[in-house]
């Protein structure tokens, strides 16, 4: 999108001698410099590209320390990367340098059943870890859409969320402590492995969501909770979006917190219908996909209550899944939305703004108006339960006029979000794509404090430069 | 072949979400972006924009793909990465030519009508000198390592009498619907004639008159998979001609990979060709074919009270399940069979790691991928694992032999024949 200009030609930051030294540190077989390898580690899920100069797969904090030592001495960038599934360009090496791939840090070090904590390395795949703890009756709730192929380290670095956030919170709510290699090479330990702990500043929270700019996470202490016994899914379709929004607040104020509360607007419903013909009403205003979990005995009570609450509103229909298979059918519409949306246009500008729950309707109406004014196609869907809306502009990337208009529309949508008391990013982070807009949300003094923190920890701007802040070097 | 602009269009559909990393069997072992569809598609895009050349590295990355299609199947945007990779291999051959080994094998041996049978005939007579018989299974071990062939690998022995050299009585059948052809393919012809025999006996039981034209040859998939479109086309043409004037209603192809290529691949090689189209329409694979007859002849089903049930599991060949979407038919067939207790393995559609010549070029990698499949098979405690692709059979037999497990790897038609007609009724 509009940030492509950030990626430009620049002189190499590494020389043959440095590459040789890094090879010695990580081993020949874990260091790659062929053109083909560099291309394949220069992008993430934003489709943005940067000129990686060397790709390394370290195995220990010590190796990372040594590389960072060299980086500070010879002033080359180091960009940490998990599975490259981020949505804001966080792992794209826009200023060249070394891409540090963390996937060899892939051990679940311990699962402490007595204290309900787990210690993992950052390269563990989130979904694999979840399966492992669920087999023991524990639960690690954060569920970004990419959970089957993203790393926990990436989740921590971006503070990933997911549909379950409405009930269970996001990644930061489960991180108790960290081992971090600082940009200058020292190894520190933050946080605790207890439920409480207030000794010193909360550095753990500082590193969670720091987008690989403050340090490289090499070990993570996570909190686990008991796995809910059962879950059940239902779908409610509404004539009007307003009613869906009222339903959301009524459900929550009646003290039922669903484990997920997803919504799709009318444009999303039509889009999926055109694609799959699932039999959803084309004239529907919105639909809610609701999942409740807990003890087996309590679920019918929740379902009944939701049924009653939505009946009072002008609902189109309600479908309650009898079992897992039924649930899968209901989820089909939501899961098909991504591929379906590309039938509108080849390029998606996907945002993850978050507004207070009671502003969702206002936001969607205004966002639609902005899109229409610019003759752009827009779909809105996402996590109604926590106000996190994936507002997506579908554009033709090759149409320069449309691209320009989309850029302007996004800025307007961001301003709207802030006006409504929201935030530019609920779960994706700032990275590259939102860097030009952070001063819409943060005042200058706040940004200066953040920059000071960055400078203290990373005086030479080694770690993941070009991200979060508008101007670089800071 | 697809033109460049349509290939670019496929590549542009990839938004690099990375979901292919969760399903690619090669990525699961190598853990490198160059191993997975997203990386390969990115490289192919750079090839189109001339930012990378036809380098040796690129060639390696393109060849390190099983073509199993798991990425395409799970891609939210429907990017057909496996087709793109095949097309890029063809471009590679077009621009850089084949490697000497592949050129020799594909162009000179496979592409020749006489040389392959002649060499293999000689081989079948000489194999005892370099290979050691493995007792029990009809297989061989190398007495010493050879290039491409690991010493401890289990190699199916070459048959001394090729399947295609057998004569069929070809009794006169008046009903045209009962006149079918049999496409043997290399594996049945040179390695496993018993699978061909089994198919023949089954067809005869159902009163079919079977034609086995001598002019048939390799289906061409190994050449196509290596990017050698020229040889693939040559072989395809020969097969189409070989079956041409036999007035057949259908052509049964026991091997799933040959089946896919004859039915779908040939249409891609010759898009507008009417003769190829009508050939393709006749191509049928065993599970669909026999299911038709079993459903209508329930009385065939042997009374099996008192017999011990055999535990059996089924492995989905990638070409059958992902390319041709055939996965219900074999299961319906197996569940129908008497004396069989059908158990599903954990990931029946996970590639076995054979991938044609992938297995020869990257044997260690192929074997690692196979281990996961073997684990899944072992967990079922099945006595038999069945499938219908000859590549999968070669691979699974190698694996089962290596682990010394008791599971027997059999072709679907063999299990069909054994359960329905084993007591020689």
Describe this structure in words.
The complex is a heterodimer of chains A (474) and B (425). Chain A has 474 residues and is an alpha+beta fold. Among the domains of chain A are: 2-104, Uridine Diphospho-n-acetylenolpyruvylglucosamine Reductase, domain 2; 108-226, Uridine Diphospho-n-acetylenolpyruvylglucosamine Reductase, domain 3, CATH 3.30.465.10. Chain A has 15 helices and 18 strands. In chain A, the strands form 4 sheets. A 7-stranded antiparallel sheet of chain A has the order 15-12-14-13-17-18-16, sandwiched between helices. In chain A, strands 5-6-10-8-9 form a 5-stranded antiparallel sheet. A 4-stranded mixed sheet of chain A has the order 1-2-4-3. The longest helix of chain A is centred in the C-terminal third of the chain and has 20 residues, at 400-419. Chain A is globular, with a radius of gyration of 23 Å. Chain B has 4 domains: 4-96, Fumarate Reductase Iron-sulfur Protein, Chain B, domain 2, CATH 1.10.1060.10; 102-156, no CATH class; 163-290, Rossmann fold (3-Layer(aba) Sandwich); 294-421, Rossmann fold, CATH 3.40.50. In chain B, 51% of the residues lie in helices and 9% in strands. Chain B has a 4-stranded parallel sheet with strand order 5-4-6-7. A 4-stranded parallel sheet of chain B has the order 9-8-10-11, sandwiched between helices. In chain B, helix 20 links the parallel strand 10 (384-387) and strand 11. The chains are: A alpha+beta (474), B alpha/beta (425). Chains A and B meet through helix 2 of A and helix 3 and helix 4 of B.
């Amino acid at each position: 999108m509009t940030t492509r200009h950030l990626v430009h030609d620049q002189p190499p930051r590494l020389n043959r001698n440095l590459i040789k030294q890094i090879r010695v540190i990580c081993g020949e077989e874990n260091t790659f410099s062929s053109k083909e390898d560099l291309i394949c580690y220069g992008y993430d899920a934003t489709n943005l590209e940067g000129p990686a100069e060397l790709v390394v797969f370290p195995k220990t904090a010590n190796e990372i320390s040594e590389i960072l030592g060299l980086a500070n001495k010879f002033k080359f960038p180091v960009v940490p990367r998990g599975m490259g599934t981020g949505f804001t360009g966080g792992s794209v090496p826009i200023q060249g340098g070394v891409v540090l791939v963390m996937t060899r840090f892939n051990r679940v070090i311990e699962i402490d059943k007595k204290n309900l904590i787990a210690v993992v390395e950052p390269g563990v795949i989130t979904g694999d870890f979840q399966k492992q703890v669920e087999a023991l009756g524990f639960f690690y709730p954060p569920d970004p859409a990419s959970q089957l192929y993203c790393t926990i380290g990436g989740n921590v670095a971006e503070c990933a969320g997911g549909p379950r956030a409405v009930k269970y919170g996001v990644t930061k709510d489960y991180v108790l402590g960290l081992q971090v290699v600082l940009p200058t090479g020292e190894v520190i330990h933050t946080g605790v492995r207890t439920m409480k702990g207030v000794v010193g500043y909360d550095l753990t929270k500082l590193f969670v969501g720091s987008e690989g700019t403050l340090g490289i996470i090499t070990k993570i202490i996570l909190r686990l909770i008991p796995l809910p016994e059962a879950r059940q899914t239902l779908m409610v379709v509404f004539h009007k979006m307003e009613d869906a929004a009222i339903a959301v607040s009524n459900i929550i104020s009646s003290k039922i917190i669903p484990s997920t509360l997803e919504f799709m607007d009318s444009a999303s419903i039509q889009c999926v219908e055109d694609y799959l013909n699932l039999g959803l009403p084309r004239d529907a205003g919105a639909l809610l996909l609701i999942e409740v979990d807990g003890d087996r005995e309590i679920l019918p009570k929740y379902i009944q209550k939701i049924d009653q609450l939505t009946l009072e509103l002008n609902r189109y229909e309600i479908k309650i899944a009898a079992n897992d298979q039924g649930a899968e059918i209901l989820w089909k519409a939501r899961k098909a939305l991504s591929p379906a949306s590309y039938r509108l246009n080849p390029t998606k500008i996907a945002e993850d703004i978050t507004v207070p729950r009671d502003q969702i309707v206002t936001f969607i109406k205004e966002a639609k108006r902005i899109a229409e004014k610019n003759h752009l196609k827009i779909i809105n869907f996402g996590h109604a339960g926590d106000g996190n809306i994936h507002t997506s502009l579908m554009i033709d990337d090759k149409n320069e006029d449309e691209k320009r208009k989309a850029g302007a529309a996004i800025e307007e949508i961001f301003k709207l979000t802030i006006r409504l008391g929201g935030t530019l990013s609920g779960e994706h982070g700032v990275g590259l794509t939102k860097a030009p807009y952070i001063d819409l949300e943060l005042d200058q003094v706040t940004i200066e404090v953040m920059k000071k923190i960055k400078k203290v920890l990373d005086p030479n701007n080694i770690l993941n430069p070009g991200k979060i802040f508008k101007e670089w070097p800071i | 072949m697809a033109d460049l602009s349509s290939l670019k269009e496929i590549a542009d559909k990839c938004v690099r979400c990375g979901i292919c990393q969760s399903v690619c069997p090669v990525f699961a072992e190598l853990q490198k972006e160059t191993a997975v569809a997203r990386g390969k598609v990115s490289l192919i895009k750079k090839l189109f924009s001339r930012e990378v050349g036809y380098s040796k590295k690129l060639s390696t990355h393109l060849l390190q793909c099983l073509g199993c299609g798991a990425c395409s199947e799970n891609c939210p945007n429907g990017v057909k990465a496996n087709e793109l990779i095949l097309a890029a291999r063809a471009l590679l051959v077009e621009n850089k030519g084949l490697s000497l080994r592949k050129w020799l094998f594909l162009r000179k041996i496979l592409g020749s009508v006489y040389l392959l049978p002649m060499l293999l005939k000689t081989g079948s007579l000489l194999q005892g000198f370099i290979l050691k018989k493995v007792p029990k299974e009809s297989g061989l071990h190398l007495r010493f390592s050879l290039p491409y062939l690991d010493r401890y690998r289990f190699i199916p022995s070459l048959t001394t009498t090729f399947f295609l050299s057998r004569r069929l009585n070809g009794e006169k059948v008046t009903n045209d619907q009962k006149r079918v052809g049999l496409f043997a393919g290399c594996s049945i012809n040179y390695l496993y004639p018993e699978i061909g025999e089994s198919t023949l006996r089954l067809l005869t039981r159902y009163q079919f008159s079977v034609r086995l034209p001598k002019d048939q040859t390799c289906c061409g998939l190994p050449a196509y998979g290596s990017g050698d479109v020229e040889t693939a086309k040559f072989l395809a043409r020969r097969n189409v001609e070989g079956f041409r004037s036999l007035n057949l209603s259908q052509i049964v192809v026991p091997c799933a990979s040959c089946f896919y290529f004859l039915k779908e691949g040939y249409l891609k090689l010759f898009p507008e060709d009417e003769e190829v189209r009508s050939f393709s329409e006749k191509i049928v694979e065993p599970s669909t074919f026999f299911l038709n007859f079993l459903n209508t002849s329930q009385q065939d089903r042997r009374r099996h009270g008192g017999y011990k049930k055999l535990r059996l599991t089924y492995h989905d060949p990638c070409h059958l399940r992902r390319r041709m979407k055939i996965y219900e038919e074999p299961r319906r067939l197996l569940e129908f069979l008497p004396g069989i207790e059908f158990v599903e393995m954990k990931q029946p559609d996970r590639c076995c790691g054979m991938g044609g010549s992938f297995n020869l070029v990257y044997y260690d990698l192929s074997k690692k991928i196979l281990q996961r499949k073997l684990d899944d098979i072992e967990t079922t405690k099945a006595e038999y694992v069945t499938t219908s692709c000859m590549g999968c059979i070669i691979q699974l037999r190698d694996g089962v032999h290596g682990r010394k497990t008791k599971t027997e790897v059999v072709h679907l038609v063999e299990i069909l024949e054994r359960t329905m007609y084993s007591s020689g009724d």
